[in-house]
UniProtKB/TrEMBL annotation:
This is Aspartate/glutamate leucyltransferase. Its main location: cytoplasm. Its EC number is 2.3.2.29. GO terms for biological process: ubiquitin-dependent protein catabolic process via the N-end rule pathway. It comes from the Bacteria. Keywords: Acyltransferase, Cytoplasm, Transferase. One of its GO terms (molecular function) is leucyl-tRNA--protein transferase activity. InterPro entries: Acyl_CoA_acyltransferase (IPR016181), Asp_Glu_LeuTrfase (IPR017138), N-end_Aminoacyl_Trfase (IPR030700), N-end_Aminoacyl_Trfase_C (IPR007472), N-end_Aminoacyl_Trfase_N (IPR007471). It comes from Sagittula marina.
Amino acid sequence: MERKLFTALQGDTAQKLNDSLSKQGFRRSQNVLYRPSCAECSACMSARIDVSKFVATRSQKRTLKKNTHLERRATSPWATEEQYNLFRRYLDTRHADGGMADMDVFEFAAMVEETPIRSRVVEYLDRESGALIATCLTDMLDDGLSMVYSFYDPEHQKNSLGTWMILDHIAIAQETGLPYVYLGYWVPGSEKMGYKAQFSGLEIYHRGQWQALNKPEDFEEDTHPLSTAPIAEQVANISIPNSRS
């Protein structure tokens, strides 16, 4: 049974709250911040890349070379028909049975546009044709970039576009002097989440602090029920920024 801690993200302190709770393992979905808090499992752990410790592997360097024909365009968080069409092709091919499979154009627009903080839509276009190939909804934090959701043209799957967008966000963080790229959640033993462990400099939020993920197998025991702190203790340990500061 899934359970989450969540809070509304609104008002003048929304950006500060998002910055603070993102550092404590929370993620944003529209105007809500949430963190998994299941009663008998703590396998979902927030992951981020320490940009200063990242070194591209040979495979990742090949991925960069495969996509030199793409150019980046960062825009305001505004949904377009072209984005939605790409999003639908991506879902129908890659996640047809997922929780977002039935999302219509209005729900897509809400996902992109209902943001009370600094967000950008990062589009990747073919230099020659101008066609939209990939897109990422990205939040700007005080210590990094948070990749909220990304999708791409399934016809270009062989180019490892999911990995490439992460590599490009690492480049953006380096260009802007931001120390981290937040990737969402990593789950030990999950094949769908396994790609995140392939990035050097990866850290996970584990037992109240960020730790380097040097050996993914060391964290498999966190699927055990006794690894989960009581909900009252979890809430008590969350640090909330002072709205007057």
